[in-house]
Amino acid sequence: MGRYAQLVLGPAGSGKSTYCSQVGEHCTSVKRRVHFVNLDPAAESFEYPVSLDIRDLISVEDVQEELKLGPNGALVYAMEYFEEHLEDWFAQVFEESYGDDDYLVFDCPGQIELYSHVPAFKRFVQYLRDRGWSVCAVYLLDAQFVTDTTKFISGCMTCLSAMVQLELPHTNVLTKLDMVENKEEVENFLDVDARSLASQLNARMGPKYLRLNDAIASLIDEYSMVSFFPLDYTKEDSLQDLMAYIDNSIQYGEDEEIREQLADLEDGGG
Amino acid sequence: MPDERREEGKRKPVVVLTMGMAGSGKTTFVQRCIAHLHQKANGMKEEDVCLPYVINLDPAVTHVPYEANIDIRDTVHYKELMQEYGLGPNGGLLTAVNLFATKFDQVVELCERRAAQESGLERTADEDGEDEDERGEAINYIIGDTPGQIEVFTWSASGQIFAESFASQFPTCIAFVVDTPKCTEPRTFMSNMLQACSVLYKYKLPMILVYNKCDISRHEFAIEWMKDFENYQQAISTDTSYAASLSRSLSLVLEDFYGNMPSVGVSSVTGSGMDEFFNLVDASVEEYNENYKKTLESNKSAEKVGELLGDMKVSGQGAKPPQPHHL
């Protein structure tokens, strides 16, 4: 009965497409079936096989040309249009092709405004959940911009602002770790305690922000609300570990065992 | 105020970078700022007249309702870029901004030259005499309008280059524009505040929260929420979702955020709150001088030592400093 999905989010250039193609390759190599759905009406080209594409319905380029909108306006328009046709277009195509035991990866647009200011995405997520999909949001951030403590906090805040909007299990991923020169420094951020975090922040920010630094540091440490998963494609296990982590959060595979047991019980009873 | 400025001689203009989510009304806010400053300048003596210097950094904007002194669209053509390199709207936007960032030293140079001028005086002719048609007023503010997508600026190298190049020369502050009517929804409000917090930690520059569109809905509710987290928790108590409880925990942090953050409600349509906004901008200069500049200077001296050491090693075959090209 399991229906599983990942929503891949993150700012432009954070490596969403690369992530999808790597997941595709990984799944082929372990003989696991996975489908890719593109939800970014502004996408250009794909390095992975896309089985369902929002651009069949609407693309930002067309909207820009026909309605003479800027890229932002066009994107919002496209997502609203998508929401309008969620039932009559998406539901049809979607339910025809996918159902039980499918594992989907949604490549989503990165703009945070689409999640916070436009209801389209919330409705879409609701739609998926109503139909029994267990969904996990995978938020990607470029590790190259997380080079010191304040920028790390900045990244945490960006992730949090997405988390507040999507009511989903959330996995934050630092991508492009292989491009970072000082890996140890980044890895330090992944496992920090409140006190050292606060003292590092205090050294970098003005005295005015002492209390805020403390509050944020304890928030991150005590509630462990934001944690990042480092992803380095050059390391073999990296993606595998991440997939296992995500699978765990959406309980992928757990139903399978139960079903086997159920089947056994039914066999015994019948 | 103008007297103080003249006493100081060359008071450096303050750079105001507007940021905010798409649709928060950054461009209309910039327009209102300009109108406000021009209006103020109207009643002044000629030698006191100070006008804003406006820079548009959004390559994809179709229509700018104000007259920009420097416009990114004059340098990079977003549509052509997309066609020429086969980029999508997102890639085009990022590339355009990145290309412009490579020439940003010249933008800062232009601003500096402009800032050195004084009102009412005959301008000393430039060596190339190019900008003879420019108005001769001194500038008091440099206002930058950033791309509509907040990520293009906050999660790219170019945004950092823009902000830091300005901040290395002028007192700089960030005006984070918030769409007030949309923020009446507690979770959207939280999302906005977290973005603001993210920007604050990314740039470390003084920041002013600007509640825009106050003519549609007043911003007092937001201030109430920020001042006292119990108010916010009450507002969100009807929402029992997981994300709402997350917001609740975050509101504890928010209280500290507000304690440090000057905020102002403005209306770009009616112009209310603009005086207060510019007072806050002027006040932010002090914070800039105290924090940012100090760190900058200590970094600079550290760098100089590093450079000296580097020069000693290379001895002679040091890299040539990059020659700026003309825009």
TrEMBL record, chain A:
Belongs to the GPN-loop GTPase family. This is GPN-loop GTPase 3. Small GTPase required for proper nuclear import of RNA polymerase II and III (RNAPII and RNAPIII). May act at an RNAP assembly step prior to nuclear import. Pfam families: ATP_bind_1 (PF03029). Binds to RNA polymerase II (RNAPII). Keywords: GTP-binding, Hydrolase, Nucleotide-binding. It comes from Chloropicon primus. InterPro entries: Gpn, Gpn3, P-loop_NTPase. CDD domains: GPN3 (cd17872). Gene3D superfamilies: P-loop containing nucleotide triphosphate hydrolases.
From TrEMBL, chain B:
GO terms for molecular function: GTP binding; GTPase activity. Its EC number is 3.6.5.-. InterPro entries: Gpn, Gpn1/Npa3/XAB1, P-loop_NTPase. It is found in: Cytoplasm; Nucleus. It is an enzyme of class 3 (hydrolase). Keywords: Coiled coil, Cytoplasm, GTP-binding, Hydrolase, Nucleotide-binding, Nucleus. One of its GO terms (cellular component) is cytoplasm. Its main location: cytoplasm. Belongs to the GPN-loop GTPase family. Binds to RNA polymerase II. Small GTPase required for proper nuclear import of RNA polymerase II (RNAPII). May act at an RNAP assembly step prior to nuclear import. This is GPN-loop GTPase. It comes from Chloropicon primus.
